[in-house]
């Protein structure tokens, strides 16, 4: 299901060899522990954040040059046992074969084959690297790309850019370059515990939790409990977590090293009751506190309309190419992670700013001869974010909803989404469940025209660059057709 998403086409930006330093040269004192090694309790968490850019970081762009992502590793697998080397080589062969046969990016199958041959492969490949895991219901792919780019300001970083976010996808990503000292890995919410059973990441980013494919993923509270277990297995990692989401606070509040990000919450219906004791919390828009003691922590980073405030109240402009509040929140998580790993703010931000799409999300593509902006929304929370994004313009709007296996068959969530935000605005609808969507829109007093395909829908909208908001398989299909 990830076969049609693509890795970024953007060239990798790297330092010149003379400027390249090993990550060790960048680490602050407490970061000198080797990856995977647990921080002793008396050691404070790293203090790389909140530092203003130094004079030599101004105009940091001039210190970087763009080189194509063709640099191959120079280090061959050394010091590994026969079985591990065999797993690495055969996994890579399987990935390359799958690619050449046109079966997809090859990542999943390569990772799966390699893991079958060496069940310990994930921890072996993670050893000696600083790995950042990114999880949550929404924003994983975009944030992971931001983290990877930010880390590349320091040294090469691998990432599961194709969105394969379980263990085989992680192995596949780590296999792509054995000498990269950094990794940014998106991880499915229910699989983080399997990762921390195997090794301790340098940092874990907990973005948000909300209902998503209830017929497949399960209840939000189950996911929150699973994240809590995952974090308990990695006490030395730095956790960067959303303080406005009670489910995330529940998962992270017992961890010794948490950096709290405040980005507000738009979707509140999965956090009305306390995830710890079940009591009614009420409006989580303000400082919330439950009678059991679970409460909104103080923020280390607070996202604003243009950037982010640090704990000392200093404002940092973000000026992202990616649109919307939701991406300022994602970028804040990525920036916090980069600083925790010893990165420089100016260099990390320069790279985050340049990202203009993530696996097709927010990309401007051509569909049926028409230029469109492509947006992914796959559950009530992400629909709210995307509707908020388009409500600021008057471009033509096409909404596409499918209900295939990867989407979840149940589309009752359509009634949870506040389509009333579009009241009076004409929209075109398409996809397997266009009629369900049209009924929902009728109740929201949104004039909708049902089209047989996205191309037909686009033909029925005039002027401007239409926004196409599509759920998972619908998004994937439109993206694939745009690349033909
Ligand atoms: Zn409570």
TrEMBL record:
Provide the top EC class.
ligase
Query: What does the UniProt keyword field contain?
Result: ATP-binding, Cell shape, Cell wall biogenesis/degradation, Ligase, Metal-binding, Nucleotide-binding, Peptidoglycan synthesis, Zinc
Q: What does this chain do?
A: The lipid II isoglutaminyl synthase complex catalyzes the formation of alpha-D-isoglutamine in the cell wall lipid II stem peptide. The MurT subunit catalyzes the ATP-dependent amidation of D-glutamate residue of lipid II, converting it to an isoglutamine residue.
**Protein name (database record):** Lipid II isoglutaminyl synthase (glutamine-hydrolyzing) subunit MurT
The similarity comment for this entry is: Belongs to the MurCDEF family. MurT subfamily.
GO MF annotation list:
ligase activity
Q: Which HAMAP family match?
A: Lipid_II_synth_MurT
- According to its UniProt record, the EC number is 6.3.5.13
Residue numbers spanned by region Disordered: 1-80
Which residue ranges have biased composition labelled Polar residues? 13-22
Q: Which reaction does it catalyse?
A: beta-D-GlcNAc-(1->4)-Mur2Ac(oyl-L-Ala-gamma-D-O-P-Glu-L-Lys-D-Ala-D-Ala)-di-trans,octa-cis-undecaprenyl diphosphate + NH4(+) = beta-D-GlcNAc-(1->4)-Mur2Ac(oyl-L-Ala-D-isoglutaminyl-L-Lys-D-Ala-D-Ala)-di-trans,octa-cis-undecaprenyl diphosphate + phosphate + H(+); beta-D-GlcNAc-(1->4)-Mur2Ac(oyl-L-Ala-gamma-D-Glu-L-Lys-D-Ala-D-Ala)-di-trans,octa-cis-undecaprenyl diphosphate + ATP = beta-D-GlcNAc-(1->4)-Mur2Ac(oyl-L-Ala-gamma-D-O-P-Glu-L-Lys-D-Ala-D-Ala)-di-trans,octa-cis-undecaprenyl diphosphate + ADP; beta-D-GlcNAc-(1->4)-Mur2Ac(oyl-L-Ala-gamma-D-Glu-L-Lys-D-Ala-D-Ala)-di-trans,octa-cis-undecaprenyl diphosphate + L-glutamine + ATP + H2O = beta-D-GlcNAc-(1->4)-Mur2Ac(oyl-L-Ala-D-isoglutaminyl-L-Lys-D-Ala-D-Ala)-di-trans,octa-cis-undecaprenyl diphosphate + L-glutamate + ADP + phosphate + H(+)
List each copy of the Mur ligase central domain by range: 134-338
Q: Extract the InterPro entries matched here.
A: Lipid_II_synth_MurT (IPR043703), Mur-like_cat_sf (IPR036565), Mur_ligase_cen (IPR013221), MurT_C (IPR013564)
Q: How does it assemble?
A: Forms a heterodimer with GatD.
Q: Which SUPFAM superfamilies match?
A: MurD-like peptide ligases, catalytic domain
The pathway is:
Cell wall biogenesis; peptidoglycan biosynthesis
Q: Which positions bind Zn(2+)?
A: 274, 277, 290, 292
Biased composition of type Basic and acidic residues is found at 23-33, 53-80
Residues annotated as the enzyme's active site: 410
Show the PANTHER family listed in the entry: LIPID II ISOGLUTAMINYL SYNTHASE (GLUTAMINE-HYDROLYZING) SUBUNIT MURT, MUR LIGASE FAMILY MEMBER
* Lipid II isoglutaminyl synthase (glutamine-hydrolyzing) subunit MurT C-terminal domain mapped to chain residues: 376-474
Top-rank taxon: Bacteria
Per UniProt, what is one Pfam family of this protein?
Answer: MurT_C
């Amino acid at each position: 299901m990830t076969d049609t998403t693509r890795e970024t086409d953007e060239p990798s930006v790297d330092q010149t060899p003379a400027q390249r330093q090993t990550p060790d040269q960048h680490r602050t004192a407490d970061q000198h522990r080797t990856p995977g090694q647990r921080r002793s309790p008396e050691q404070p968490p790293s203090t790389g954040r909140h530092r203003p850019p130094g004079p030599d970081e101004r105009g940091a762009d001039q210190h970087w040059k763009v080189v194509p992502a063709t640099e191959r590793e120079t280090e061959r697998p050394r010091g590994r046992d026969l079985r591990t080397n065999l797993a690495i080589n055969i996994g890579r062969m399987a990935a390359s074969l799958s690619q050449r046969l046109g079966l997809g990016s090859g990542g999943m199958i390569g990772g799966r084959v390699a893991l079958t041959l060496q069940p310990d492969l994930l921890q072996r490949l993670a050893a000696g690297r600083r790995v950042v895991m990114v999880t949550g219901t929404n924003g994983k792919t975009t944030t992971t790309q931001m983290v990877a780019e930010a880390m590349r300001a320091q040294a090469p970083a691998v990432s599961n850019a194709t969105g394969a976010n379980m263990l085989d996808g992680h192995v596949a990503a780590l296999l792509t370059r054995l000498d990269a000292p950094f990794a940014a890995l998106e991880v499915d919410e229910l699989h983080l515990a399997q990762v921390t059973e195997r090794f301790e990441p340098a940092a874990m980013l907990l973005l948000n939790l909300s209902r998503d494919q209830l017929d497949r993923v399960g209840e939000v509270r189950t996911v929150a409990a699973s994240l809590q277990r995952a974090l308990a297995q990695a006490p030395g990692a730095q956790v960067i977590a959303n303080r406005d989401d009670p489910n995330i606070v529940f998962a992270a509040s017992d961890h010794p090293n948490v950096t709290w990000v405040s980005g507000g919450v738009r979707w509140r219906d999965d956090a009305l009751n306390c995830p710890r004791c079940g009591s009614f919390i009420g409006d989580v828009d303000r400082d919330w506190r439950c009678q059991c003691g679970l409460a909104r922590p103080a923020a280390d980073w607070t996202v604003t309309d243009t950037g982010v405030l640090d704990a000392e109240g200093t404002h940092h402009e973000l000026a992202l190419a990616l649109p919307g509040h939701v991406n300022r929140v994602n970028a804040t998580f990525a920036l916090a992670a980069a600083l925790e790993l010893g990165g420089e703010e100016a260099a990390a931000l320069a790279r985050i700013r340049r990202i203009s799409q993530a696996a097709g999300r927010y990309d401007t593509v051509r569909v049926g001869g028409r230029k469109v902006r492509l947006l992914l929304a796959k559950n009530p929370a992400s629909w709210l974010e995307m509707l908020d994004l388009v409500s600021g313009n008057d471009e033509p709007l096409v909404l596409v909803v499918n209900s295939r296996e990867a989407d979840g068959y149940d589309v009752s969530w359509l009634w949870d989404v506040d389509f009333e935000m579009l009241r009076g605005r004409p929209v075109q609808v398409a996809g397997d469940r266009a009629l369900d969507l049209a009924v929902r829109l009728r109740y929201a007093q949104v004039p909708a025209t049902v089209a047989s395909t996205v191309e037909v829908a686009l033909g029925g909208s005039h002027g401007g660059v239409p926004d196409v908001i599509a759920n998972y398989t619908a998004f994937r299909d439109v993206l694939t057709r745009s690349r033909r």
